């Protein structure tokens, strides 16, 4: 895995596609994901060396700043981020379930990275603005205390920008809920 990931979220598809093109022309980065998300916004997730990702994200922000919703650069992202984005995480048991929602797409990845680095938890899913009118959520599991600590740290990571929406921790969720989400 690369040393860094970065993401931009734009209000318009046109701005997002032009920004994605500029990012790969600016630096040696790979596009992990570039697509429309609800409600008609556009996200681009890139990876590469930290300096290359920083340069690409800055170019993107300068190019279409008026349409930019949010962005981030994470050095050394937690290894569980990508399986959770793609729904490829294999979870055997759920002692506690943590859920957190944000108002935008970029904040949820930052929150998930903070949560995963805070406590021994497993990210189950990161839903990035697909079918949620622009909101995003994460689900994670682990021991009750670990899930509580991870959710608190994730909340703090995005609350300053006003992107935190809601969160909950369920100790020992019912088997029917576990089956529905896993």
Automatic annotation (TrEMBL):
PROSITE patterns the record matches: BMC_2
Domain BMC: 4-86, 96-182
One family name in Pfam for this protein: BMC
Similarity comment: Belongs to the bacterial microcompartments protein family.
PANTHER family, A to Z: BACTERIAL MICROCOMPARTMENT SHELL PROTEIN PDUJ (PTHR33941:SF11), PROPANEDIOL UTILIZATION PROTEIN PDUA (PTHR33941)
Descriptive protein name: BMC domain-containing protein
